[in-house]
Amino acid sequence: GNIAFDGRTIYFINENSLLTAYDTKTHKTRPFRNVIAYDFCLTEQGLYFINRMDSGCVYLCGKDGVGSLKISNDPALSVDYDGEKVTMILRACLKSSDKDSNEGKSKNLSRNTEFALTIFPKPAEFVKPAE
Q1: CA distances from 12 to 1, 21, 42, 63, 67 (A)
Q2: What is the pTM of this model?
Q3: Among positive and negative, which fits the CA dihedral 114, 116, 119, 124?
Q4: How far apart are CA 124 and CA 107, in angstroms?
Q5: Are residues 58 and 45 in contact, defined by beta-carbon separation less than 8 angstroms?
Q6: Per-residue pLDDT of the chain (131 residues; tens, 9 = 90+)
Q7: What is the CA radius of gyration of the chain?
């Protein structure tokens, strides 16, 4: 599984699939209620996680586990943060538009095709992964 550290708190997914925070100063472990995840990443905004209770959609919550916000309506395979942007790999039937070459026409992308979606800090944009 994955793990993240913000200088004081270690975040991880426990044996019950709950996103959990371990405070290195108080030595207390606190699972986040209702945050059942199979992947997550830590950002300045909070924790992006793939919600097992909502078909694998991506959510954002605060570092205290409070205030979940649904980010995607499509199931994701992974979510990652590289220090500048959050990227999630989606597995779904998607529609996207390429304004430069299609003049706003949407194109259907086949089901079960993986796509990377950058969701922070810019508005969402679809990017086909390098092959």
Answers
A1: 8, 7, 10, 12, 18
A2: 0.72
A3: negative
A4: 17
A5: no
A6: 589 999 999 999 999 999 999 999 999 999 998 899 999 999 999 999 999 999 999 999 999 998 899 999 999 999 999 988 999 888 754 444 343 433 333 333 333 444 555 555 444 444 444 44
A7: 16
Query: What secondary structure, in 3-state letters, does 45-114 show?
Result: CCEEEEEHHHCCEEEEECCCCCCCEECCCCCEEEEEECCCCEEEEEEEEEEEECHHHHCCCEEEEEEEEE
Side chain identity at 64, as an amino acid letter?
Answer: D
- In this structure, how many other beta carbons lie within 10 angstroms of the beta carbon of residue 84? 11
Say how many residues make up the chain.
Answer: 131
**Strands 76-81, 69-70: parallel, antiparallel or unpaired by DSSP?**
unpaired
Yes or no: say if 11 and 23 are a contact pair by the CB < 8 Å rule. no
